[in-house]
Amino acid sequence: MSKIKTLEEAYAQFKDNQVIAIGGFLAVGTPEALVDGLVNSGVTNLTIIGNDTSYVDRGIGRLVVSGQAAKVIVSHIGTNKETGRLMHTGELQVELVPQGTLAERLRAGGAGLGGFLTPTGVGTIVEEGKQKITLNGIDYLLELPLKADIALLKAYKADKLGNLVYRNATRNFNPLMALAADFVIVEAEEIVEVGELDPDAVVTPGALVDMIVKA
Amino acid sequence: MSKIKTLEEAYAQFKDNQVIAIGGFLAVGTPEALVDGLVNSGVTNLTIIGNDTSYVDRGIGRLVVSGQAAKVIVSHIGTNKETGRLMHTGELQVELVPQGTLAERLRAGGAGLGGFLTPTGVGTIVEEGKQKITLNGIDYLLELPLKADIALLKAYKADKLGNLVYRNATRNFNPLMALAADFVIVEAEEIVEVGELDPDAVVTPGALVDMIVKA
Amino acid sequence: MADTRERIVKRVAKFFKDGDLVNLGIGMPTMVANFIPPEINVMLQSENGFIGIGPSPEPGMEDKDTVNAGGAFVTILPGGACFDSAMSFALIRGGHVDATVLGALEVDEKGNLANWIVPGKMVPGMGGAMDLVVGAKQVIIAMEHNNKNGAPKILKNCTLPLTALGVVKWIVTELGVMEMTCDGIVLRELAPGVTVEEIQSKTEATLIIPDVIGTMED
Amino acid sequence: MADTRERIVKRVAKFFKDGDLVNLGIGMPTMVANFIPPEINVMLQSENGFIGIGPSPEPGMEDKDTVNAGGAFVTILPGGACFDSAMSFALIRGGHVDATVLGALEVDEKGNLANWIVPGKMVPGMGGAMDLVVGAKQVIIAMEHNNKNGAPKILKNCTLPLTALGVVKWIVTELGVMEMTCDGIVLRELAPGVTVEEIQSKTEATLIIPDVIGTMED
């Protein structure tokens, strides 16, 4: 069964109340056509996981502006004034997570780990509500895994089995979200035949990918 | 300062009592010329971290046979009868670690994590002496990071900055050990000019590599 | 003996669905690859670091860098993907592997599995087995029904050190196919010519016998 | 103002050694790249996912896929390496980054740092800052000595929510260079024309004054 689908087939996956992980860092490496579909779908009460809320007119930021995001789990909101405004009015819940911890939480979710101990955030407000564990005299926070219902990824090239390669700074959270989501949709700049990608250069194995759309 | 060294310069790094992580899986992806040097150096009381003790005449197995390994931290010893024999006589300490846990412990050591929670080993003798943590009704073992003084890696190609690519099944533990060791020595089948490797295809960044020798 | 093993692995191969990612253990489980129905696409993972195990190479065409987790020379199919051991076990532990097929020394009524150690006799190490059985969506045990001495391997309680607690889903032997359920081990299929009485007599655990029992096709 | 910042970043650039892997924060720290001595090779990490930040592209030559952690277009030098965010922060948290240069809102005598939030006013999020200051081998703070209102930023105790506890190693301002030690903040260098009395008067924390104080070269 072919994984290559139309944008409409991809959009049909969106439902209210989903947890959606979206690749990208300040919208670089974000699948904008899939975000278009998410905005147009009108589905609501979403929890969005991503590095940041980018800009009002790009990437995840558009889901903040549209009001579809009820909650965002991100490391940074400073480039999108609407995120801060909606957080202050109480219309948007914002969970700020240190970037390395966010990456590791997604990886833990995707790798079947129950959590991990990190020194990051000890002694700061990040430790509120978390278990602190001391080993060999060093304090660590126990951080818990993150998973998503759907991941929306941007790839440079996908082969027809869903093997992915990324380009330059676009990789960021994409490969981690491929592991951490139950259903993985990829927007690829180019779709190539099976065998065209060097197995040693593949970053995300096709086994993790459910649908591929052409950017 | 060039990272490209002679085998003799690499061998000069070996000292008694070191913890040495050696890449490879049943000796595939093991830097045999560096192991040659380790055997010939005669340094002793070593702790060797690797996937397995391979065979009596290949890879890590040779350090078991030579008696230089006082302890091995591995997932499997079944292909090297000498490991089992020395374990039973008490001449060799063997710490058996589930393969996924071994990989993750090296990664944690290299990534500055204090440990991680895994469901692997719960209810088995692997849990002996370990802290068990229950989250949402699921039991996990708290596994601790592993680090090494030296890592001996095998790469397919290295550029002169130490950026590495691996080939097929040789990658295995090599990239994790590059993160987890204080000093990283790579045996490369081919050494290429800076710029010849595609940055998107590099698996181990050169910043992690201290020395490169030609296989 | 060869027929016994072939019967087992042929049946195991029928569990897979199109698109499945499967990990086959060393020994008999590896043979399952030869019987996967050609109409479905199943990807095979080698936990030493790749997806896309292909056929054994022709003699003289072996590639020193391309072996399976048992150290045997294999090939990588077009569309394969290589990764490090942390990613390999992220796939395994994270539930991305649809099924794993392994042998067993003992299995019991609670789905407990012992297949890695016989204290004082055989201490090979667990390799990737503990992660595989905890992480894979379905654990399929492919083994001969009784051990070399004719003693049962499907027990009320495992006696050997465990590989994991409550992980086994299916047991396929030359005598039949059994499914692990909350209530115990249900007999789903019998090999041709094998009776309920025979399989129960060779099994220490009490098998649950449903109204309908299928035939394990040859 | 430009001179102030240039003085600071020029001095910071002298901390690096040949072969160092360095992460430069957004804003003034980014300018440090322009002053790294040509005789040493310093690799710059961009925590959004690569090592080998090169010069800004010529106008019209921007590549949509190649930005730094501030979202500005950059280039990747030959010999660069790209990775995902987990690897990027494995490098950072794991102590593989030799130095990070960041600005600060407040620093105190215990090496505590506050540089990510002003409650009720500015809540941009910590981004990668908390990991960077915990993980990098040396944390170098590059900032103007006092805030816009002329109030000290080097305090006895930080008043803003912290980024991390006890992580700062060096503070470089337009007035001088200070080193964090177990005993407190030691004044190591003064900018030309600045006296001990002047820098202390602009600092809430009590500076430790050693016998020899260097000159912060221009």
Q: What is the CATH class of chain A?
A: Alpha Beta
Distance between the termini of chain C: 15 Å
**What is the helical fraction of chain C, as a range of percent?**
10-25%
Structural class, judged by helices and strands of chain C? alpha/beta
Largest pleated sheet of chain A: 8 strands, mixed
- Unreliable spans of chain A are none
CATH architecture of chain A: 3-Layer(aba) Sandwich
User: Count of DSSP helices of chain A?
Assistant: 6
Helix content of chain A: 10-25%
Which runs of chain C of at least 5 residues are low in confidence (pLDDT < 50)? none
Coarse shape of chain C? globular
How far apart the termini of chain A lie comes to: 21 Å
Going by CATH, the architecture of chain C would be 3-Layer(aba) Sandwich
Q: What order do the helices and strands of chain C follow?
A: HEHEEEHEEEHEEEEEHE
In total, the number of strands of chain C is 13
How many domain modules of chain C?
1
Q: Which fold does the CATH topology of chain A refer to?
A: Glutaconate Coenzyme A-transferase
- The fourth-level CATH homologous superfamily of chain C is Glutaconate Coenzyme A-transferase
CATH class of chain C: Alpha Beta
Radius of gyration of chain A: 17 Å
Would you write up a description of this structure?
The complex is a heterotetramer, with 2 copies of chain A (215 residues) and 2 copies of chain C (218 residues). With 215 residues, chain A is an alpha/beta fold. Chain A has one domain: 3-Layer(aba) Sandwich (Glutaconate Coenzyme A-transferase). Chain A contains 6 helices and 11 strands. In chain A, strands 1, 2, 3, 4, 8, 9, 10 and 11 form an 8-stranded mixed sheet that branches. In chain A, α5 (99-111) runs parallel beside α6 (174-180). The longest helix of chain A has 13 residues, at 99-111. In chain A, 61% of the residues are buried. The model of chain A has no long low-confidence stretch (mean pLDDT 98). Chain C has 218 residues and is an alpha/beta fold. Chain C has a single domain (2-215), classed as Glutaconate Coenzyme A-transferase. Helix content of chain C is 17%, strand content 25%. In chain C, the strands form 2 sheets. Chain C has a 10-stranded mixed sheet. In chain C, α3 packs parallel to α4 (129-135). Chain C is globular and about 50 Å long. The two termini of chain C are 15 Å apart. Chain A binds chain D through residues 25-26, 28-29, 51-52, 74-79, 84, 87, 96, 98-104, 106-107, 118-126, 156, 166-176, 203, and chain D through 46-50, 63-71, 76, 82-86, 88-89, 92-93, 112, 122-131, 134-135, 161-165. β5 of chain A pairs antiparallel with β5 of chain B, so a sheet runs across the interface.
